[in-house]
Structure formats: C-alpha cells, structure tokens
Design brief:
Bound molecules: flavin-adenine dinucleotide, FE2/S2 (inorganic) cluster
Order of helices and strands: EEHEEEEHEEHEEEHEHEEEEE
Strand order of the largest sheet: 4-3-7-1-2-6-5
Strand content: 35-45%
Length: 252
C-alpha cells in the first residue's frame, strides 16, 4: 500500500454519465491485482474530508484507471479533473479476486457501475479460461460493457437484451456450463450481490462477490466498514478482509 501524488493523464466520459480517470501511478500499478481498490482524496483542500474508494478498473504500464458515475460531491469533483492535475491516492487496497485456479469457465456478473473492476479482471484472467460476461442494468443506458467481450445483456425494462434482471439472465444461461468447472465473479448493487450469492450457493457454484460499504480509512483502522461474516458469528472489514469475499462467507 502506498500514498502517492498521482498526475492525471485523462478524464473521459466513455458513455453518458460514466467516466474513466487515468492517472500515472507506477508504484500502485506495480502492486495492483484485479478487484483491489484505491482510496482517493478528490480535492486538495479538506472538502470533502473523507477519501472515496474506487475499484482499480485497469492497469496499463505505469498508469491505473478508475471508472465511476456521478453520485455526489466527490465523484462530481473527480469528473472535472483534467490532464496534469495532481490527485492524492492510497492503494492498492483490499484483497482482490482469486481468479487463478483449475476451473475452466469464468462468469462475470456486473450490475450498473459494478462493471468497474472487470476490464482489468477480464484481461488478466487468462486465455485458458472461457470468460462470459452477464451485464445488467435498469435500462439500456445503464449498461456498461467497457473492456469486456463475450457479453450477454439484461435490462429490467427490456430495452436491450434479456428482459429481466441479471440473475435471471444467469439462470437462463447456467445450464450451458459445467458447474464444477465454473467460477462466478460479481460486482454491483447489494441486492444483486445477495441474489447472485443465493443463486450460486444453491447451485453449488464457486462465487466471489465484490462488496461495498461506506468507508473512512480504507485500510483497517477505523472499523467503519464492517459486514457480517457467516463464520464464528463474527464480522469482517470490507476494506481489509475484502472487498472480495466468497459468497458463502458473508451475510450482506
Ligand atoms: C471498495 C469500493 C469500491 C468502489 N468502487 C467504485 C467504482 O469503481 N466506481 C464507482 O463509481 N463507485 C465505486 N464505489 C462507490 C464510491 O466509493 C461512491 O459512489 C463514492 O464514494 C461516492 O462519493 P461522492 O462524494 O460522489 O458521493 P457522496 O456525496 O458521498 O454520496 C452521494 C450518495 O451516494 C451514497 N453513497 C456513497 N457511497 C456509497 C457506497 N459506497 N455505496 C452506496 N451508496 C453510497 C450516499 O449515501 C449518498 O446518498 C466503491 C465503493 C467501495 C466501498
Ligand atoms: S474503512 Fe476503516 S476499517 Fe475499513
């Protein structure tokens, strides 16, 4: 983990309301793994006070990229950064996806801005795996497929692809895969993650979910990001023990 002053290379609106921020961060790029995140101080002054966590969306040489939508003051400030701006970043943080293994099929499940970590995972997962991506959103404008291929789309309103949610889409596809040779990687809103977890546990399919929690420090000091663990009636920290967990290990 490093705290660095990163120089902004670019901010791009890749589709309406969805931005990528690319910064020069050689020391973080050298250590990063798919599924890890950074905690970003969005401003030079102390407003907003707390850093904001963002998944590492891609690593390209000495550069790392983030993908975000505007939900409040922090993301609005980030969307207005320009080339050369310096941003204070702590990372890489958290554990990342455990994507190396003997399984043959990887199924990526992304809901809305939950697509953010997947360009990096998709690229790193390796040519020996058959990677399929199920990407869901409320409507076609919410679908983010950036950096992914072999994509199946679902929309709640039926405006594009499968008419239904992304777990129903997964259900319609799952018989094409040998469940003992398949691993699911999911990121998106908590209700979606809950449904993916339940689905994979019931079917006996290995599944990792990238969880979210409101964060302050981002590295295990403030205890502000606890979620319930299914082991020993305990709790885990999203920032330090996660954000990626085996579906059966947490109650979200
Ligand atoms: C590990 C981790 C990785 C993340 N990765 C990404 C990413 O790659 N791309 C991305 O766009 N977002 C990501 N997020 C969420 C992102 O951190 C928040 O959207 C961001 O902090 C909002 O900052 P803001 O100042 O714009 O909004 P605020 O002004 O802080 O909040 C605006 C509204 O959004 C709600 N909100 C804020 N944070 C969260 C949250 N974590 N979950 C649910 N609601 C929230 C607030 O309650 C409020 O209603 C991630 C969160 C975590 C914990
Ligand atoms: S954000 Fe401080 S312990 Fe997790």
């Amino acid at each position: 983990m490093q705290q660095i002053k990163a120089k902004t290379e670019s901010v791009q609106e890749i589709q309406k309301g969805i931005f990528t921020l690319k910064v020069l961060a050689p020391s973080i790029a050298a250590e990063a793994r798919p599924g890890q995140f950074c905690n970003i101080k969005v401003n030079e002054d102390n407003f907003p006070l707390l850093r904001r966590p963002f998944s590492i969306s891609e690593v390209d040489g000495d550069y790392i990229s983030f993908m975000f939508n505007i939900v409040g003051v922090g993301t609005e400030i980030l969307s207005r950064k320009s080339k050369g701006d310096i941003i204070d970043i702590i990372g890489p943080l958290g554990n990342g996806f455990d994507f190396v293994g003997d399984y043959k099929n990887a199924i990526i499940i992304a809901g809305g801005i939950g697509s953010a970590p997947f360009p990096y995972l998709f690229r790193e997962i390796g040519v020996d795996k058959n990677v399929s991506c199920c990407v869901g959103g409320r409507s076609k404008v919410d679908i983010i497929t950036y950096g992914m291929r072999n994509i199946f789309i679902s929309t709640d309103d039926g405006s594009e692809g499968f008419h239904g949610n992304v777990v129903q889409l997964l259900d319609s596809k799952i018989d094409d895969f040998d469940k003992d040779e398949t691993k699911i990687f999911a990121c998106g809103p908590t209700p979606m993650l809950r449904a993916v977890s339940e689905f994979s546990i019931n079917r006996g399919i290995s599944c990792e979910i990238s969880t979210e929690s409101v964060m302050a420090c981002g590295f295990g000091i403030c205890q502000g990001c606890v979620i319930e663990s299914t082991k020993n009636d305990g709790f885990v920290l999203v920032c330090k023990d996660g954000p990626v967990f085996n579906a059966e290990d947490v109650r979200i």
